[in-house]
Design a protein that fits this description.
The chain is mainly α. It has a single domain, classed as Methane Monooxygenase Hydroxylase, Chain G, domain 1 (Up-down Bundle). It has 3 helices and no strands. Helix 1 (about 5-40) runs antiparallel to helix 2 and helix 1 runs parallel beside helix 3 (about 70-90). The protein is elongated.
Length: about 90
Amino acid sequence: MANLASSIKRARQETKRRARNRAVKARMRTTVKRAQVAIDAGDMSQANEAVVAAVREIDKAAQKGVIHRNQAARRKSRLMQRLNKGGATS
């Protein structure tokens, strides 16, 4: 347990930030998973909407510093590749 006032405050801040970051990351993962399921289902109109929502959440997570901007770019790129590949087969 922290002893100094500054370290006690730092521990308190870390707890709040960790909870906030986990919520952002969970929301991002959920929207990405929904997009992947929609792509696999083959309904391209629904898949496009789901991908747009997922990209928005990925961008928000990167903006808030929850994930690195390069990771955000990689995730978006892979999602778009999957969408384009799924669209070509349908």
